[in-house]
């Protein structure tokens, strides 16, 4: 297997936009507005629409989170979202490597390594080169040790 690395980021906040109408263009409207205001979004996960509504979870830098939350609270009415909530007690841990999506079993191994330490996963996001989990911030160091043991030892 190619060289992998483990990354973590404790300087993020989770912002959850709940009850967003599940229609074409809603994500463009929300993230277009955030981008126009200069905000960088580090992670985005959406739920599939249920009853015509979806939830959008994003991670942003903790330094910008209050301003992002404020912008989203203003935008909430325009897009008819139900609520906007923030959770500052989270961190991101990732297994990263080029073409990781072509390596079978990475996600399962990652989830097993975290669960074997009793670390609950709040949100999962994958890309061609990474698997990222949102976890409780106070478990970050332990998560990194578990993932290094799983992927980098031996």
How would you characterize the overall build of this protein?
The chain has 154 residues and is of the alpha+beta class. The protein has two domains: 5-10 and 89-151, ACT domain (Alpha-Beta Plaits); 13-87, 2-Layer Sandwich (Alpha-Beta Plaits). 33% of the residues lie in helices and 34% in strands. It has four helices and eight strands. Strands 1-6-8-7 form a four-stranded antiparallel sheet, covered by helices on one side. A four-stranded antiparallel sheet has the order 3-4-2-5, covered by helices on one side. A hairpin with a 6-residue loop joins strand 3 and strand 4. Helix 3 packs across helix 4. The longest helix is centred in the middle third of the chain and has 18 residues, at 62-79. It is elongated and about 55 Å long. The model has no long low-confidence stretch (mean pLDDT 93).
Could you state the order of secondary-structure elements as H and E? Answer: EEHEEHEEHEEH
Q: What ranges have pLDDT less than 50 throughout 5 or more consecutive residues?
A: none
The count of strands amounts to 8
Shape by Cα distribution = elongated
Q: How would you summarize what this structure contains?
A:
The chain is an alpha+beta fold. It has helices at residues 26-36, 62-79, 106-115, 140-151; strands at 5-9, 12-21, 41-46, 53-61, 83-87, 90-96, 123-126, 130-136.
């Amino acid at each position: 297997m190619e060289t992998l690395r483990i990354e973590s980021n404790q300087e993020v906040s989770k912002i959850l936009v709940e009850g967003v109408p599940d229609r074409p263009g809603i994500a463009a409207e929300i993230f277009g507005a955030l981008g126009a205001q200069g905000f960088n979004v580090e992670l985005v996960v959406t739920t599939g629409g249920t009853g015509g509504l979806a939830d959008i979870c994003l991670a942003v830098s903790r330094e910008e989170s209050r301003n992002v939350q404020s912008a989203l609270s203003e935008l909430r009415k325009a897009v008819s979202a139900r609520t906007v909530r923030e959770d500052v007690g989270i961190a991101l841990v990732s297994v990263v490597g080029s073409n990781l999506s072509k390596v079978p079993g990475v996600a399962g191994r990652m989830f097993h390594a975290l669960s074997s330490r009793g670390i609950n996963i709040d949100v999962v996001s994958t890309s061609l080169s990474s698997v990222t989990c949102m976890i409780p911030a106070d478990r970050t160091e332990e998560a990194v040790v578990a993932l290094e043991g799983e992927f980098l030892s031996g």
